[in-house]
Amino acid sequence: MLSLAVLLPVLAGSALAQVPLPNPQWQPQNASAGAVPSPYGTSQPNPQWSNLLGDLLWFYEAQRSGNLPSTNRVSWRNNSATSDGSDVNLDLTGGYYDAGDYIKCTFPLSFVLMSICWGATDFGKGYDLSNQTPYLDDMLRWGLTWLEKAHPANDTLFVQVGDTNADNAYWGGDQNIPGSRPSFQINGTNPGTDAAAGAAGAFAACSNLYSNRLFSNAFSGAATLQNSSYASELLQHAEQLYDFAVHAPGGMTEYQNNAPVAGDAYASSGYGDELTMAALFLAWATNSSSYYQDAHTYYSNYSLKGYKGVFNWDNKTPGVNVLFAQIEQAGGFGGGNLSNWQSEVERYLDGIVYGGGDGWMTKVVCYITMAIRTTRVSTLR
Ligand SMILES: *[C@@H]1O[C@H](CO)[C@@H](O)[C@H](O)[C@H]1NC(C)=O
Ligand SMILES: *[C@@H]1O[C@H](CO)[C@@H](O)[C@H](O)[C@H]1NC(C)=O
Ligand SMILES: *[C@@H]1O[C@H](CO)[C@@H](O)[C@H](O)[C@H]1NC(C)=O
Ligand SMILES: *[C@@H]1O[C@H](CO)[C@@H](O)[C@H](O)[C@H]1NC(C)=O
Ligand SMILES: *[C@@H]1O[C@H](CO)[C@@H](O)[C@H](O)[C@H]1NC(C)=O
Ligand SMILES: *[C@@H]1O[C@H](CO)[C@@H](O)[C@H](O)[C@H]1NC(C)=O
Ligand SMILES: *[C@@H]1O[C@H](CO)[C@@H](O)[C@H](O)[C@H]1NC(C)=O
Ligand SMILES: *[C@@H]1O[C@H](CO)[C@@H](O)[C@H](O)[C@H]1NC(C)=O
């Protein structure tokens, strides 16, 4: 059997995408190229929106950590942080840097992967029509491959690589990143319910995408990148992490209680929303009413109803309401109440658009949100 050490040099420097990347590469548009007329009334996508989608995926490519593949599109990026994980004798290289700094953070990364996979399952034809699906595949696998490495055993999840304070004191490029990049974990005795459940949600949502598990009432169809063995591999991580989140011998707690350094950057305000979201994506992935029952239990136990705040890496509740509505509208698992979830989604979005919520918008965002509200809620009806 080949050992990991033999495989690694072969893998380093090669692209992860299974969908062949375009040649020539897609690159962000030159800003001074200006607006391009929209081909209204044709089957072509609006190039402005296609470019936005392309820019979004290119942004993640600019954030890559580790040994970059020969297909790297970002000319000013280099290999970096190539010994991450060596302090714990693991390979934790790769993944994405958090922001303008060079820490790698599991909790917000999980939110990113979950959101992109969910969107690409429900509205994936947009990626296909924009010719961005190969980059979507590449972007997701770059993150998921790292998240798999960060989950080396059922009850172990690395939640951060790099020390927040040391890293934030450095403002340079990727060639002089301060060394000594410690790896921080949660495990059975020192758990982190939100981080484990958040990663479970990401793996399950991405498994749905890679296996093309659509609801009977799917909006547009998934982006075309299916791979059933990869989907099962992702689902296995999801189920193990969910089990870890729920049954860790150390009980349930916010992950920063056991990995304080992670709390400096991304402290979680509670794990009820991550548990609910993970259970819902697993119910979708496995068609199992027991996960769906769990989701109902968490939702009421952690009093998620009536939430008015933002939807972000910490707070998944607005998305949870939409997921409940999607599952109910597709038939549910018996005994559910679709209109209850529809009202909850509308209440939340109305609070943003018409006031009364904790979030508010600039005018442009307001128009976009109103458009999304109109299309999304009417599709849910
Ligand atoms: C499916 O994904 C697996 C795991 O990443 C990969 O090894 C395999 O080559 C992929 N299959 C195809 C047909 O691309
Ligand atoms: C962007 O496009 C303008 C106009 O076509 C051109 O003058 C300029 O050199 C381009 N810049 C880059 C960086 O390609
Ligand atoms: C960084 O990458 C660029 C482009 O690949 C290369 O030209 C440059 O030599 C690299 N810089 C260093 C310090 O390795
Ligand atoms: C479990 O996690 C805690 C907190 O990160 C850490 O201090 C401890 O060393 C870990 N246990 C093992 C066996 O690695
Ligand atoms: C890890 O979880 C799987 C179920 O996903 C289980 O079959 C296996 O026994 C677990 N391994 C250990 C060491 O607990
Ligand atoms: C889920 O399982 C039920 C039977 O328990 C079946 O009727 C339904 O078609 C399944 N749905 C999916 C999406 O597989
Ligand atoms: C419900 O919440 C309480 C604390 O508020 C907690 O002790 C209990 O374990 C929770 N039950 C479930 C199923 O999450
Ligand atoms: C379903 O939810 C709606 C809206 O919250 C509520 O008015 C209705 O009474 C509920 N129906 C049942 C059967 O609980």
Features:
disordered N terminus, 50% helix, Glycosyltransferase, 3 strands, binds 2-acetamido-2-deoxy-beta-D-glucopyranose, 14 helices, disordered C terminus, mainly alpha, globular, 381 residues, 3-stranded antiparallel β-sheet
Quick recap of the structure?
By secondary structure, this protein is mainly alpha-helical. Helix content is 50%, strand content 3%. The relative contact order is 0.09.
CATH architecture of the domain at 2-30 and 44-270, please?
Answer: Alpha/alpha barrel
Distance between the termini: 54 Å
Low confidence ranges: 1-12, 373-381
Structural class: mainly alpha
As laid out across the biggest beta sheet, the strand order is 1-2-3
Q: What is the alpha-carbon Rg in Å?
A: 21 Å
Give the strand content: under 5%
What are the bound molecules?
Answer: 2-acetamido-2-deoxy-beta-D-glucopyranose
Tell me the number of helical segments per DSSP (H or I, 4 or more residues long): 14
Largest sheet: 3 strands, antiparallel
Dominant shape: globular
CATH topological fold name of the domain at 2-30 and 44-270: Glycosyltransferase
**What is the highest CATH level, the class of the domain at 2-30 and 44-270?**
Mainly Alpha
The residue-averaged pLDDT reads 90
Helix content: 40-55%
- SSE string: HHEHHHEHEHHHHHHHH
Write down how many β-strands occur, each being a DSSP E stretch of 2 or more residues: 3
